[in-house]
Amino acid sequence: MKIEFGWHLDRAPWAYTQPGLNHIRVGRKNFTALLQTRLGITRPDTGHAERVSQYMNRLQSIDSPDAWFHSSFEVDPWSTAQELLAARDDAVSNGWSGELPEAETGGVASSPLLQTLAAAEKAPGQLAPSLADDVAELVTALNSPLSLGINELILQHAERSFPHIWQVIIAKLRSRGIKVSEAVTANTQLRLTLLTAETEWEAAENSARWISAAGNESTAVVASDSTAVLDHFLAEHSLPAVGAGTPSVWRPQDQLIPLFFEVIWGPPNIQLLAEFLTLPGSPVRRAAARLLLGALRAEPGIGGDAWKAAVADIERDEQLGPDLALILDQMFSTGLLLEEKGVSGTELAERSEWLAARLRARAAIDETAKSTAALLQRILALTAPLTRVSRRDLRRIIASVISPTAISLVAAEASPWLRLGHLAELTDEVDHVLWWGFQNAGAPRPRRWDAQDVDTLALVGVHLSSREELSALEVAQTLSGATRTKNLVLVQIQQRDGERVEGNPLLEALVAAQQSVKAQTMADRLAAITVSPADLTDSTGHWSLAGRRSQLVKVSPHRATAPLPVHVVAPNPALLPERISYTQLSTLLGCSLAWVLKHKSHLRVPDAADVPTGNKMLGIFAHKVVEVLQERLRKEHRAVPQLAEVKTVIDRLLPELASELLLPGQKHRLAGVRATIETTVLMFFQQLQRGGVVLQEMEKAFSKDLSLIAGGSEVTVAVEGRVDAVGIDAAGRTAVVDLKWTNSEKYLREDVQQGEALQLALYQWALNDGDVSPQSPAAYFMLKQGTFASAHPEFGPALQAAQDAPELWRKAIRAVEFTVDEVLSGRITATQRVEDVLAEGELSAAALAAEQERLHRKPNCTYCNFGTLCGVKGDYS
Predict the structure, then answer these.
(1) Residue 191: what are its φ and ψ, rounded to 5°?
(2) Where is 22: in which H helix or E strand?
(3) Highest mean pLDDT: which range of 47-51, 602-606, 861-865
(4) pLDDT at 531
């Protein structure tokens, strides 16, 4: 057997240009495995996470308060064990047996690190061998008389460039009669070109054009980065995809276990819970997940009324049932794990049994579920012996077990060119090489040892390669690969995702290795080989890059067309609103396109993105605090609560409606929110008492028919909703208050001053008889600022309104009739886009509405989810 051996050849393909039997290429990992097989010393592989766990147990056995690693180990045992195990494996892979020189030998004292490693090496407990142990074992195993079946060993770079232990192994192979030689470096004159593009898209377009411009039977494509964009352009040239992916943990199945182990702990993180429920392949049945997501959207917390109602709905559902309802409620609400109470590995396994069972049930029909189930069992096996598992330790263990996977958006396809991951893997003669992702090409950084440790280990025969030596080895093998081609194109980009991309140090080595006709600085030599996409095409459309040419044909410019501001469709009576709330009404009057898309086309954001956070969450929370307090006050015939009562209600409702504030890192924010709500809620009740308004009911439901003239006939639309707070004033009139949590009170005050507080007018109309909204007390209360905005003195200093409620309501009815008539006739308007394209002298929507005595509502584009569809965001793609 003939073997080609190089430090970076583990991923290299076998012979490309001269294939043959009994001729293989290997790197150190595959060569070690081959020698183990021939010597009969193979053994089962053990995962890295399992070895970290074993080493952690060894460290535990030698730990003491005065141990060098004690402080770190006490805070983060897993990471400490992981770091020390990496140092141990690096030393062992270079021949260390666990022994240190005697203290008097050479006058070099062992460092605390080496003393710790030596103590751990002798400590009781299992430590499964790794590649490092396998390499070290070869030194003695090669003394065996067993035949290796190897005739020739061809080194892809100089023998002296290998680490010392490998030089020893190579020498032993030579002593067994194996012919050892070094590969002959080709004396090829290389043409080096550096294509520097601003973005990945520019680079991919020109790279694909270069590949398509000639035959590729003697071409290699080196992909050191994801080729998703390159594959897109290759497809346009009807060429096969390279199919290289980037390692990432953001795969749905890879996220299942980490998300599960986040959402079973308290305090609950409902944003992560929403992601878990909506994750592709989630173990929670879709119907149950929808109900729980609905609860989270209504009340962003766990265990509140909405959550209990969702659990009850699951229990009543024939397809779901009470067993599932109980499991989900215990898993994500009533039985959350609390770190401060101490959680054992056994308890963690019990909580995970449901997930394990779900994965096992799907494993028969889903390969990804089978692999995920295996990962879960590995994690549980690692945590099972632990008497106390912290969330941090659990995260570390999960990160060790679930490694990033490289999955390309497009699978690799059969191609005439040779596909490599690094130029160092090139061992065949080819004419052309395109190196895609050149800036990302690089070997893993080796461990940096202190000079004292290097000297100490040298005394026991362990020679550690320096980082400089290993870097030189990478450079040497890369340069060796460069000698096997005549034409090398390096592709690099200036920026990715708006951030500058650093260069690759290999560039200077590649340039320096090329012959120069005269003395030139490195900057001059780099400039001479660098081209940009703008340099590749001349005035006649001739495109050329690195010896390949193509004729480009000029096409007519195509500008992205903005969506129409007004969409005209066939008249459709189905567009008539059957029932409408204030929120719907405001959307309809502001932008009929947004209303149609949401309420007739039923477009919506993903469920996980619709769970309240920020101001929306705080508004729901503060509103519920007022509601609970009012219910208590009404039963006890009181008007104003005590501060202690407010604090008690806040504490009780926090996990149910604002669990986000209980998460780590939210302490300062929680203190601010708590202080604000305590103050403003008291101000709310106190002002109502001073104004003579008796609060009767919170969240009062209403439903009233609204008669409109639309499409030439009378239509009736049911107006439904809930009023935040309803009371009665001293004159017996109905008083309504809408509670708001907003950063600024400016816009609500302006609404009241301009006489355009439509929400308050609608509530008064709905709660009173008659077709016109009465001039009864109504106000907005700003929960964050603790102020009322009202034209009525019952709520404090009154604002002067430009028009009264009856007049506002009449204008609102005209506006509704006008808009509904347009929608029914098939005219759907994106209001802001119409305003943006107004010709000079044309009346604006506000001016037209004023002229026709209709209410004008501004479109709420800031919080609209359809800005891309209508074109207001300017992206017409």
Answers:
(1) -100, 115
(2) none
(3) 47-51
(4) 95
Distance separating alpha carbons of residues 57 and 123, to the nearest angstrom: 9
Same domain, 425 and 538: yes
436 burial level (CB within 10 Å; 0-12, 13-18, 19+): buried
Please state the length of the chain: 877
Q: Is 533 in the same domain as 425?
A: yes
**Residue 317 vs residues 323, 355, 456: alpha-carbon distances, Å:** 11, 21, 71
Quick one: angle between helices 131-141 and 164-175, nearest 10?
40
Q: Beta strand pairing status for 191-197 and 418-420?
A: unpaired
Instruction: Report the domain count for the chain.
Output: 5
Q: Are strands 542-545 and 485-493 parallel, antiparallel or unpaired?
A: unpaired
CA triplet 794, 798, 804: central angle to 5 degrees? Answer: 95
pLDDT value at 21 more than 70: yes
Residue 98: inside a domain, yes or no?
A: yes
Rounded to whole angstroms, how far apart are CA atoms 672 and 162?
Answer: 62
Distance, in Å, from the CA atom of 478 to the CA atom of 480, rounded to the nearest integer, reads 5
Q: List phi, psi (to 5°) of 538.
A: -95, -175
**Is 94:470 a contact under the CB 8 Å cutoff?**
no
The rounded distance, in Å, linking the Cα atoms of 574 and 191 is 68
- Return the number of other C-beta atoms located less than 10 Å from residue 635's C-beta: 8
- How confident is the model over 325-354, as pLDDT tens digits? 999 999 999 999 999 999 999 999 999 999
Query: pLDDT class for 14, splitting at 50, 70, 90?
Result: low
370 in any annotated domain: no
Note whether 151 and 196 are same-domain residues: no
**Closest to 144 measured CA to CA, from 289, 245, 40, 69:** 40
- Do 460 and 484 reside in the same domain of the chain? yes
**C-beta atoms surrounding 392 within 10 Å:** 14
- Please provide the DSSP assignment of 571-604 as one string: --GGGS-SEE-HHHHHHHHH-HHHHHHHHTS---
Distances (CA, A) of 21 to 18, 24, 38, 62, 149: 10, 8, 18, 52, 14
Report d(CA 401, CA 350) in Å as an integer. 20
CB-neighbour burial class of residue 395 (10 A; exposed 0-12, middle 13-18, buried 19+): middle
Q: In this structure, is residue 467 part of a structural domain? A: yes
Do 100 and 195 have their domain in common? no
Domain with 424, as residue range(s), is 191-245+414-551
Direct distance between the N- and C-terminal alpha carbons of the chain, in angstroms, rounded to an integer: 58
Based on the fold, state whether residues 437 and 456 are members of the same structural domain: yes
Peptide bond connecting 557 to the previous residue in cis, omega within 30 degrees of 0: no
Mapping DSSP to helix (H, G, I), strand (E, B) and coil, where does residue 754 land? coil
